[in-house]
Amino acid sequence: MDTNYSFKIYDNTSSLPIEWNSISSGNNIFLTREYLQVLEQSAPVNMTCHFIGLFQGEELVGIALSQFLNLNKMESFGDRDKCVKTAIRNSVFKNFTSHILIIGNNMLTGQNAFVFSDKIDTIQALKTLKKASEKLKVIFKKKGTKIHITTFKDFSIEEITNFESAGFQNHFRFCTQPNMVFEIPNQWKSEQDYIDALLKKYRDQYKRARKKADSIEKRKMHLEDIIKHEETIYELYHHVAQNAYFNTFFLAKNHFRTFKELLKDKFLFYGYFIDNKLIGFNTLIKNGNVMDTYFLGYDESIQREKMLYLNMLYDMVAYSINKGFKEIVFARTALEIKSSIGAKPKEMFGFAQHTNSVADLVFEKAFNYLEPKVVWQERNPFK
């Protein structure tokens, strides 16, 4: 088999090959032309995206996404932890690791870096993708930007063997917070099946949360509703993002509107109201038979009183079961509460390398020091 692959790098979706979606559709919505247009039109201000096509001769046999992050443009990395370690971390990120090239999607959790056709030799394809990352570094250098770190993310333990065979042995292999994944049993057909499967302690938690939220009205919001409430939506989102452990970007204000315009019914937006006032929202993305949870926002004072976040999680589970999805990707953050509703941790790995060979030697120690550690207890809510 001919494994002589080439690559092309695109900086806009209008230049993508017409057959692009024949590779992505049915495999991963986050590499379709429509989703990439969302990034093109409403990426965070500190993010620049490129799209990579892998070719065997003239035939497109693989597609990939790259994101460049300029952390110097960040207003804040997250304000939850105000301590010396956080200040040191922020200073190091600003000065030594502020220009990051990612093969993958930093806005999502999971393998959203590439899709290869069945015809492709995975090892050779990864080698070609590595060459594409080197070419991107040259492209940025010509524009006056030096890439500090190149990273490939997020991959399961089964997938990383291919990387090691493809020449990534000299890269630092890292493991960050797990992806929280909820696998829906085939026999469950409704939310009641989920409730019935819970242990008494967690069934009582479910009932208590639902009762607390009695006064809240949940509404499916359409494009015109999202546009109407755009200012409030952004305030609610930004409050949650600002109080996270660590951020490398903030969404653009028009992000949710753009998502709905381009992904239509594949993107779900639910608002939570009290007396017609929007006090929270969550978003979901249909990705084949997998439901991906996306960004959310809420009024903190009401969230605590009404157990709003927990109710949102229950709503996501209920919708996904009722609509026949096989799995819910709950991503990172809030690990323990997601565990309490039934999500299980799935380890995700990445590979990173610092451009400076001297800095690369201490990169692993620095990463382990700076990566936010979260202590949490895994729960098992089911009988």
CATH architecture of the largest domain: 3-Layer(aba) Sandwich
Q: Please give the domain count.
A: 2
Helix content: 25-40%
| N-to-C SSE string, H for helix and E for strand | EHHEEHEEHEHEEHHEHHHEEEHHEHEEH
In terms of structural class, how would the helical and strand content be classed? alpha+beta
End-to-end separation in angstroms reads 51 Å
What's the main sheet like? 8 strands, mixed
What amount of the residues lies in strands? 25-35%
Mean pLDDT: 91
Task: From the 3D structure, determine the CATH topology of the largest domain.
Answer: Aminopeptidase
Question: Would you mind describing this structure in some detail?
Answer:
The protein is α+β, with helices and mostly antiparallel strands and 383 residues long. It has two domains: 5-176 and 348-370, Aminopeptidase (3-Layer(aba) Sandwich), CATH 3.40.630.30; 180-346, Gcn5-related N-acetyltransferase (GNAT) (Aminopeptidase, 3-Layer(aba) Sandwich). The protein has 14 helices and 15 strands. Strands 1, 2, 3, 4, 5, 6, 7 and 15 form an eight-stranded mixed β-sheet that branches. A seven-stranded mixed β-sheet has the order 9-10-11-12-13-8-14, sandwiched between helices. Strand 10 (267-274) and strand 11 form a beta hairpin. Helix 7 packs across helix 12 (308-322). The longest helix is centred in the middle third of the chain and has 21 residues, at 122-142. The chain starts with a strand and ends in a 13-residue tail after the last helix. 33% of the residues are buried. Residues 77-81 have low confidence and may be disordered.
